[in-house]
Design brief:
Blueprint (H helix, E strand, L loop, with lengths): L4 E3 L10 E3 L5 H7 L7 E5 L3 E10 L4 E11 L7 E7 L3 H14 L3 E6 L7 H5 L2 H15 L6 E2 L3 E2 L3 H8 L3 E5 L10 E3 L10 E6 L7 H9 L3 E4 L7 H15 L1
Parallel strand pairs: 1-3, 6-7, 6-12, 7-8, 7-9, 10-12, 10-13, 11-13
Antiparallel strand pairs: 2-5, 3-4, 4-5
Helix pairs in contact: 2-4, 2-7
C-alpha cells in the first residue's frame, strides 16, 4: 500500500524527532484521509525522506515521530535543469508547472517574451498559486526536492539569471517560424554530457522575435527543433523537459 506523503520545512530532523505537520495538511489528514494516531506516513524536506508515525491528530495540530530515513537527495551528483517558460494562459501554464515538476525539472522561471499570452505583472501575482501546484505534484510524484519557482523575468534579463544560477549552456527550442533566423540542431543530436547545469527556453505559439533570437545568439545558445512536427508550447515544454532529464 502506498503511503501518503507530506512536506515539512524543518531541515534538521532525524530518527526519533517529533515533527509538527503543516496547518494546511490538517483538514486533509483528518477529514479526507481519516488517518488516526499510529498511521504511517512519509515526510520529505527537500533533502531527505523519512518514514514516520502519526502521534497526535487533533483539529488544531498534528504531530508525527520519525522512524527511519528512506531516501536522500543526491545534491552533489545531480545535474540541474532550469526551464525558462514563456507565459501562457493560466490553464496551460498550470499544466506545465504540474508536469515539469513530475518530470524532475529543478528550477522554473516564468518568461515574458514578445509573443507571451500574459505579462510579467500578472505572473508575479500567481507565484504562490504555482508553488502550491509544485507542492501537490511533488507529493504525488515522489520528489524529495521540490522544483523552485523563481521570479518572472523578461528575455533581456535572462543573462543575469544564467550567471546567478550558474547555467553553463542555454538550449532554445525553436519552431518553424524561427528556423530561417538561426543555425539549429535536431533534438536527436543533443548532447549534454559536459554540462552540470543547463537552461531550456520554450516560447509561446508565436515562437521568438528576431530580436530575441539575437539575444540568445549572443548568449551562445544551442537552438534545437524537431523534423516535420509543430508542437504547442505546453506540449513542447513537457516533451523537452522529459527528453533532457532523460539525457541527464
Amino acid at each position: 500500500m502506498r503511503l501518503n506523503r507530506f512536506f515539512t520545512p524543518r531541515k534538521h530532523i532525524g530518527v526519533g524527532s517529533s515533527v509538527k505537520l503543516e496547518d494546511s495538511d490538517i483538514s486533509h489528514i483528518r477529514k479526507v484521509l481519516r488517518l488516526a494516531p499510529g498511521a504511517q506516513i512519509l515526510l520529505f524536506n527537500n533533502s531527505k525522506e523519512y518514514l514516520a508515525t502519526l502521534k497526535i491528530v487533533s483539529k488544531d495540530f498534528i504531530t508525527a515521530e520519525i522512524k527511519e530515513k528512506v531516501k536522500e537527495f543526491d545534491n552533489e551528483n545531480t545535474r540541474e535543469v532550469t526551464l525558462f517558460q514563456s507565459l501562457l494562459k493560466a490553464g496551460k501554464f498550470d499544466l506545465i508547472i504540474e508536469k515539469t515538476t513530475e518530470l524532475g525539472i529543478d528550477k522554473f522561471i516564468p518568461l515574458e517574451t514578445e509573443f507571451s499570452q500574459s505579462k510579467l505583472e500578472d505572473a508575479s501575482k500567481k507565484i504562490m498559486r504555482w508553488k502550491n501546484i509544485v507542492m501537490a505534484a511533488s507529493k504525488q510524484s515522489g520528489r524529495i526536492k521540490m522544483m523552485d519557482i523563481l521570479n518572472p523575468i523578461k528575455v533581456n534579463n535572462i543573462e543575469s539569471s544564467l550567471i546567478e544560477i550558474g547555467i553553463e549552456k542555454l538550449i532554445v527550442f525553436v519552431s518553424e517560424s524561427n528556423l530561417k533566423n538561426c543555425e539549429f540542431k535536431n533534438i536527436k543530436d543533443l548532447k549534454l554530457d559536459n554540462f552540470k547545469r543547463v537552461g531550456v527556453v520554450i516560447g509561446s505559439e508565436g515562437g521568438f522575435s528576431p530580436t530575441e533570437i539575437e539575444t540568445f545568439k549572443k548568449l551562445e545558445a544551442m537552438f534545437i527543433t524537431m523534423d516535420n512536427v509543430v508542437l504547442r508550447s505546453e506540449t513542447a515544454s513537457v516533451f523537452f523537459s522529459g527528453i533532457i532529464k532523460n539525457l541527464y
